[in-house]
Structures are given as C-alpha cells and as structure tokens.
C-alpha cells in the first residue's frame, strides 16, 4: 500500500514508518521539520496541500499531536484551544479531507493515548484531546465505510521512560515496536471504529 | 446548597431545576435567553461575569451544549470548532474559573451524552464534544479534590422522542425526571470523576 505517515520525525513516527516499510509498504512521511513533505497539519489549508502533493494513497496514519501540560488552574482558554487544534482538529481534518481522496477501501489510523482514560495531574488538555479523538473515530467509522478508521491509544513508551517515567509512577510501559504493530494491525486489518489500547 | 444551573430554558435544565429546588436547594438559573442571569457561557468572559454576579455557590450544574449535526463530509473546520466552543470549552471554563470561586467542597456536574460512546450518522461533532468533556472530567477530578466533578451522559429523552426519535431507532429512551435524579446524585453524593450514564 501507499501510506501517508504524519509525524515523520517523532519517536513513534519513526518506529511506525519502519514497521510499515518492513511490511513492504511505500511510506510518504509528513512532518513540520522533517520528512518527505514538510507541512503543519494543525492548519487545515496545509492538510489540503499535503493531500495534493501526496496523490492517491491507501492509508493515512497519524502519530503526532501537540498539547500543553499544566495544572487546570494554570491553563488558559487558549491552552485548551491549542490542544484542540494540535491533536483533535488536525486529525479530524486528515479524515474529513481524506475521505474523498484516499482509496475506496482505504483507512485512517489516528493517535490518542492512555491519558484519555487514565489521567495524570497536568493532563487535562491532553485527556480532553484524546477523549475527543476516540469519540470522533467511533462516529466517523459508521459514516465512512467501506473506508475504515481506528485509533491507537498507547501508554508511556519504554523508550521515553527516562524522560517521562516520573509522570507515570507504577505504570508498565509499552515498547515502541509493539505500538507500531498496532498500526500495522489497523492498516492491514478489517476492523473499524476500534480503539487499540496498549498498556 | 446554593446551585448555579446553566441552561435555564432547556427541557433538561427545567427538569434539573425542579428536582434541585424540590430537594430544598437554592437554584440560580443562567441562560442565553432566559433565567436569573442572561449570559452566553460559550464566551469565557461571560463565564467570569456569571460567577461575579452569582457570588459564592456550592455547586455548578451544566445542562446545555450546542453542536452542529451533519455528515462528516458536510462538516467544515468551523463546525468542529463551534462544537468545541459550544459544548467543551464552555464547560471547561465553568470549571477552570469556578474552582477558585465555589465552595471548598463544592462540585461541578457537566453534561455529555450517549453519542460519545454510541454515535449516529451526523453526530461526529457531538460525539467528539462528549468524548472530550468526559475525558476532561476524569482528568480534572484528580486535580481539584476535595472539590468534585462528574458528568451526566443520557440517551435520548422520552420527552424528546417525537422530535428526535427517528435518530435513535430501537433505543430505549430515558425520562427527564430520571436524568434529573442523576444530577441530584452527583451534587449531593461524594463521588468524583464519574460519568453517570442513563440509557
């Protein structure tokens, strides 16, 4: 398959790219600062450009989202808006603009995360964004068939424990390679409207 | 208790107001077009004014949200933004601005809905908003204690079946009076971070 991969330079994007390439797929990477196509998909107009540049694809895979982490009382309305634009609306736009452009039986795989169901202090914007994306995935799935849409919702990565481990006390991490396999499962499988949790 | 009730003129707001008044509480109603205080809480600045006018309260109760209903392919980015402002950010602002203002052991009860877990065609914005609010509730709960926060997530109301029944084929409705009791349970109980589902 020809697969559009958003989040080219991140740890997860790199792992997913390797897994998909390893399965024989052609991967077009998109990132703000690296990748085959350099765009910021938080801007709906740049999503359009990405699709125009990429041409016909079979699957769209999201691995990146930007959200602020602060206590609720230190958040501003702008912080929640930025989480909405940085992890929710950008991924919705991949779908909304992608449905008429990708293959008839193509698929979308979006990224959420454990904080939607199991928050930590300072995660209210991240949690909100993850909950929004997962509910959108369930809703879009029943409209876009035979195209498919799923979300991948991992806990903290083993490879990020040194940096983020203190925020996830007592929580068993998941290897990036295992998360990447969930993307493979979503892209090559037949399921839709599923949230693949890894924890 | 002194309770701030958002959504004064809606079917649900009216039922919740009656239930809370029936329990002996003092209810201050807020609505765009009716109620003791007339404000649009989709505007964060008006949320501030509501709290300044209301003075000290023990509980804040949300019963209203505005979201567009259209197929995914007919939605625009602005539609999803309006759902975010009309049902997510407005309720987040009630909490964010309310925490320093309401009673030390006060509570927030927000409104979501069945479409977050069980979508219908055209509900992607509503579903997204409900998922966002429920995840925010779980996240805020672990930060704001001993204040509490819950959400009420009802299916279609018996009293709205004539108008909306066709959108919920085969789905057993719930009486407004029963939904109102879930608000009583959230306001007077000790739970936090809970999503009370009614279906």
From TrEMBL, chains A, B:
Record GO terms (molecular function): oxidoreductase activity
Gene3D superfamilies given in the database record: NAD(P)-binding Rossmann-like Domain
Keyword vocabulary terms for this entry: Oxidoreductase
Domain of life: Bacteria
Stored SUPFAM superfamilies: NAD(P)-binding Rossmann-fold domains
Oxidoreductase is among the record's keywords: yes
InterPro entries associated with the record: NAD(P)-bd_dom_sf, SDR_DHRS6-like, SDR_fam
Family: Belongs to the short-chain dehydrogenases/reductases (SDR) family.
Protein name per Swiss-Prot or TrEMBL: Short chain dehydrogenase/reductase family oxidoreductase
Organism: Streptomyces himastatinicus ATCC 53653
């Amino acid at each position: 398959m020809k697969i559009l991969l958003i989040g080219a330079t991140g740890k997860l994007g790199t792992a997913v790219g390797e897994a998909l390439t390893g399965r024989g797929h052609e991967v077009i990477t998109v990132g703000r600062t690296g990748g085959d196509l350099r765009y910021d998909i938080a801007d709906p107009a740049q999503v359009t450009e990405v699709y125009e540049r990429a041409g016909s694809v079979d699957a769209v895979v999201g691995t990146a989202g930007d959200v602020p982490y602060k206590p609720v009382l230190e958040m501003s309305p702008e912080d929640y808006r930025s989480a909405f634009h940085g992890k929710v609306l950008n991924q919705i736009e991949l779908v909304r603009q992608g449905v008429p452009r990708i293959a008839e039986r193509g698929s979308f795989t979006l990224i959420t995360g454990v904080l939607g169901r199991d928050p930590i202090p300072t995660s209210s914007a991240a949690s909100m964004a993850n909950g929004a994306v997962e509910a959108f995935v369930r809703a879009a799935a029943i409209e876009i068939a035979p195209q498919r849409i799923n979300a991948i919702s991992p806990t903290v990565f083993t490879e990020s424990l040194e940096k983020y481990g203190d925020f996830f006390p007592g929580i068993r991490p998941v290897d990036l390679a295992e998360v990447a396999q969930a993307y493979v499962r979503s892209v090559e499988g037949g399921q839709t409207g599923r949230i693949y949790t890894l924890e």
